[in-house]
Amino acid sequence: QTAWQSVGGMQLGSIWGHGAYQAPDWTADWLHRELTAWLDLAAQERHGKPYAELDAGAQGALRAELKAEYRASGVDDSNTLVVSERRAQAIARTATYYDQLFSDAPALRQSRQSFAMKENTLPSAERREAMTQFFFWTAWAAAT
User: Fold this and answer.
1) Long-range pairs for 13-19 at CB < 8 Å and ≥24 separation?
2) Alpha carbon of 94 to those of 41, 56, 58, 60, 76: distances in Å?
3) Is the sign of the CA dihedral 83, 84, 87, 93 positive or negative?
4) pTM score, two decimals?
5) How far is CA 17 from the centre of its chain?
6) CA angle 50, 36, 12 (to 5 degrees)
7) Which mean pLDDT values do the consecutive 10-residue runs of the chain (144 residues) have?
């Protein structure tokens, strides 16, 4: 949270829908990206092709599985969050996107311009990692 606040917090996007009009709501954006990654990973694993290329029946079956997995809190008896291997991979993919977005990665320059973000918005890799953890937590809290 501190890392996100250090780059302007609610002046640059929002959390849980309360904030600036520039840039996305990071909670919703993270959740969308993580769910999309999960569906693509599941489609590749089960059908050998991207989710978008599956027929409606196969897509529906994966969406039902995704819904069940994401509605469960995943917290064990020791209050530790436990996620499936597939969800861990989806989380990692999503975190990589945000790490690159808040850095100076050339592939996301246009996105930063669209969001009115300066290049290398958060120069510290350690702080970018902390911020991705915060974004994940907000999405997890919103989805469970």
Assistant:
1) 13/115, 15/138, 16/138, 16/142
2) 12, 25, 23, 23, 24
3) positive
4) 0.87
5) 15
6) 140
7) 56 66 86 98 98 98 95 88 95 98 97 92 94 94 87
